[in-house]
Request: fold
Amino acid sequence: MLKVKPLEERDHELIREAEKVIEKNYRYGRHHIGSAVRSASGQVYSAVHVEANVGRITVCGEAMAIGKSISEGDHEFETIVAVAHPHPHEDIEKCWVVAPCGMCRELISDYGENTYVIISYNGELVKCHVLELLPEKYSSDIE
Reply:
């Protein structure tokens, strides 16, 4: 069972930023995930994922948002979220929060081991520590 925390208003604002970036940039087959990361300074960086015809070279939205933050000199992260945009053939009207994939869990914890992740859990939006999503994280550190 995950240890989760309720969302604060600023977490809902982070979700809205992820929704805004994907609603603005959605393209079927190219961009359907938006992400937003809030740095420790309070600055928010949002980005979309970059789909590739060869799936394994697709870059996730979380990686793009983290890269954008780092590129702007903001290296400490507080909270991250990703949302999916519905495709035209889906009978869904609005974006929804999605959990990070395994590679993003590794990336988030590599660059922000104290970062919280907003997810849907037991039917509600909550946030949890990234290491809750990645038990026994791989490390090259020798103990």
Notes: The chain has one domain: 5-132. The two ends are 28 Å apart (CA to CA). Strands lie at 5-6, 33-39, 44-48, 77-84, 96-98, 116-121, 124-129. The chain has a mean pLDDT of 94.
